[in-house]
Sequence to fold (255 residues):
Amino acid sequence: MNIPIRHIFTCIMDILIPRRCLVCGCSLLVNEKHICLHCMADLPLTYFWTYRHNAMADRFNALIEQKHPDNSHERYVNAAALFFYSHENGYREILYSLKYHYNIPAGEFFGKMLGKRLSQSETYADVDIVIPVPLHWRRYWSRGYNQAEVIAKAVAKELNAELRTDILKRNRHTSTQTKLDIEGKAANVEGAFIVKTRTLPGSIPERPEDAHHILLVDDMFTTGSTALACFTALRTVFPPSVRISVATLGVVGGT
Ligand SMILES: [Zn+2]
Fold:
């Protein structure tokens, strides 16, 4: 019998430090990664990458319309998430383990899953620039990584697109969004992002209009206020001829 050495190592590590399914908490088998096969089979995929007009994109386009009622140049903005999460289903723990518990491998794993689906979608296959929602430097410093960047890196690789962390900047430290209502979240992040100017090294492309399709990536989509604030900042530089789409691992809703 030819058992890969990494499986033997995983078995030994599973005895020493049992790995648990992020969703249901059961012990993982040697071939299971992050969540058990049962929870993987039940992963509430949105399939939003197959429908340009979907609930998440509709919600986001309504926000844009509300914020910029006179903007008739903006085309319908694409938005997609990999799976639904809610207070009731355990899939929220995938997002929380990445965001709060340093579970970068889980972010890479599910980011790759999201990227694969987007790369197979006509709507997203032509993305050439992937931009993660940035953290303020103070939060980045205390957390040690940006969870959106972990996902964006995996997505960019699958889309064969360029990951750019030097374009968008969070210029204001905002309080945590968790306990705010919809209006509070919008006010909290409004104007919190800027695009780095051309005068700085490693700034936006020399000719922004040469960019084709930008994908803004975050870990989760709740009210859409963070994505809207980033979108608004990017639009100050990139003309409407450059498409800007949004992708996240989780979107609140579903079952
Ligand atoms: Zn499970």
Observations:
- Residues 21, 23-24, 26, 35-36, 38-39 surround zinc ion (CB under 6 Å).
- The mean pLDDT is 88.
- The CA atoms of residues 209 and 242 lie 6 Å apart.
